[in-house]
């Protein structure tokens, strides 16, 4: 089953190289680091300017001057493993033709991946107590209703799986067949997508999941790293994973969504990039659909959307977008 999921994901990946190739490259270079690591000098101002401009261009992430130590911490091991002398050499490798795979490895190293199940619980309470009950009430039985949800920066999958189990419960999918539910989970970081595909979490990661839901949607197993909880197929089958760069001019998605979660990512963008990404996301949101942002993300005035509550925003009029097809 996992191999089949990898094949699906690899077909969707726009690069000529697969996620597996990137992960293998990363593993190989770590193995190559033996007993004589190179001492890498602290990143210079010039090197930092080059790398921060590259990161901003590719990811939209704004590295201000005080982020120099962060850049060094996250990248020095890559420079070391590649047996390079300094960050100038690493930058030249990134922008060269032979370094095209390294760009994804760099992205995996510099992106922040913090997440958890039921993070910012008030937003999930809204789904459980208001959104799904209203959907059940207002939609006539006997007709299959499509429900589409997008976790646009899913990291290691906790958010996406939380959405899957809440939707399963909220739509009573174990008793009713009229719901056509699909959840897209995307991230630019292929390393965390690999972990999300596996859907395996240690005990400390699943503590926020109620015991009844844990028993219904997860099974436990022992591993060399200790006890792991793995999502069951009744949950995994609802999700599709795909690498997506929110900064891209177009997304490899031809669908519109009832809910879009894009939380705790906009804070890393400058104002111009935030507006670009938000306008792009709204093109994929149904009228009256909901956009969920992180608790510390304040949405400036944006045409076509209004604040609902708990950093949840609702689309209020039609956007001009191409006809959506069910393919993502």
From TrEMBL:
GO terms for molecular function: protein-glutamate O-methyltransferase activity. It comes from the Bacteria. Keywords: Methyltransferase, S-adenosyl-L-methionine, Transferase. Its EC number is 2.1.1.80. It catalyses: L-glutamyl-[protein] + S-adenosyl-L-methionine = [protein]-L-glutamate 5-O-methyl ester + S-adenosyl-L-homocysteine. One of its GO terms (biological process) is methylation. InterPro entries: Bact_Chemotaxis_MeTrfase, Chemotaxis_MeTrfase_CheR, CheR_C, CheR_MeTrfase, CheR_N, CheR_N_sf, SAM-dependent_MTases_sf. SMART domains: MeTrc (SM00138). It holds the Pfam family CheR_N. Residues 43-309 form the CheR-type methyltransferase domain. This is protein-glutamate O-methyltransferase. It comes from SAR324 cluster bacterium.
């Amino acid at each position: 089953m996992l191999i089949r999921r990898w094949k699906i994901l690899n077909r969707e990946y726009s690069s000529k190289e697969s996620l597996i190739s990137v992960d293998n490259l990363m593993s190989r270079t770590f193995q190559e680091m033996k007993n004589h690591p190179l001492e890498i000098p602290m990143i210079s101002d010039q090197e930092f300017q080059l790398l921060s401009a590259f990161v901003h261009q590719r990811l939209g992430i704004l590295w201000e001057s005080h982020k120099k130590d962060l850049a060094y911490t996250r990248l020095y091991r890559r420079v070391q493993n590649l047996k390079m002398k300094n960050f100038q050499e690493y930058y030249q490798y990134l922008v060269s033709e032979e370094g095209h795979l390294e760009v994804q490895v760099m992205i995996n190293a510099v992106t922040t991946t913090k997440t958890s199940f039921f993070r910012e619980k008030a937003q999930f309470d809204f789904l459980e107590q208001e959104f799904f009950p209203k959907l059940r009430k207002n939609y006539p039985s006997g007709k299959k209703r499509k429900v589409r949800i997008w976790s646009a920066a899913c990291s290691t999958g906790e958010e996406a799986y939380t959405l899957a189990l809440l939707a399963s419960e909220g739509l009573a999918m174990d008793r009713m067949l009229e719901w056509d539910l699909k959840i897209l989970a995307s991230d630019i970081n292929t390393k965390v997508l690999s972990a999300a595909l596996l859907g395996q979490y240690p005990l400390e990661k699943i503590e926020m999941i109620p015991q009844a839901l844990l028993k219904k949607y997860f099974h436990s197993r022992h591993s060399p790293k200790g006890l792991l909880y793995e999502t069951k197929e009744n949950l995994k089958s609802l999700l599709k994973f795909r690498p997506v760069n929110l900064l891209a001019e177009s997304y490899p998605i031809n669908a519109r969504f009832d809910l879009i979660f894009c939380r705790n990512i906009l804070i890393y963008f400058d104002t111009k990039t935030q507006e670009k990404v938000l306008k792009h996301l709204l093109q994929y949101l149904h009228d009256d659909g909901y956009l969920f942002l992180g608790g510390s993300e304040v949405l400036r005035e944006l045409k076509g959307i209004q604040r609902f509550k708990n950093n949840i925003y609702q689309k209020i009029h039609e956007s001009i977008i191409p006809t959506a097809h069910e393919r993502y």
